[in-house]
Amino acid sequence: MKTFEVLPSEFSEYVAWLSENNYLNEARFVEIFVRSKFNQKGWGRTKINYELRKRGISASLLASAWDGIDDQDYIDKARALLQKKRDEIKTGTSPQRYQKCYNYGLSKGYESSLVRELLKPLFA
């Protein structure tokens, strides 16, 4: 608002207008954040939830944020990321490559149980 030379006494007026017209909407922000980080960056629930908690988002909004993401799509995205990582690793023994893939899945924010389950058939 300082960029547009708005007087400090008028800040509350502008903020109220932005809220009324759905420009300042925390639920909308959370929905877009979850969708974009999942679809574009391939982040998992753990990482996305952590980033949202860092921004002070309430637990109730966090719980409802994942309604827009289908569980099967979530699993398919994790599987594709892990397969791609497995194919990229050219050196090391099978247990070393497994560990690198496992760490990669965790770093992307996927749950450890899901990563282990998806890696079993890839390294069988």
From TrEMBL:
Residues 73-119 form the RecX third three-helical domain. InterPro entries: RecX_HTH_2nd, RecX_HTH_3rd, Regulatory_RecX, WH-like_DNA-bd_sf. Keywords: Cytoplasm. Residues 25-65 form the RecX second three-helical domain. It holds the Pfam family RecX_HTH2. Belongs to the RecX family. Its main location: cytoplasm. This is Regulatory protein RecX. It comes from the Bacteria. It is found in: Cytoplasm. It comes from Aquirufa novilacunae.
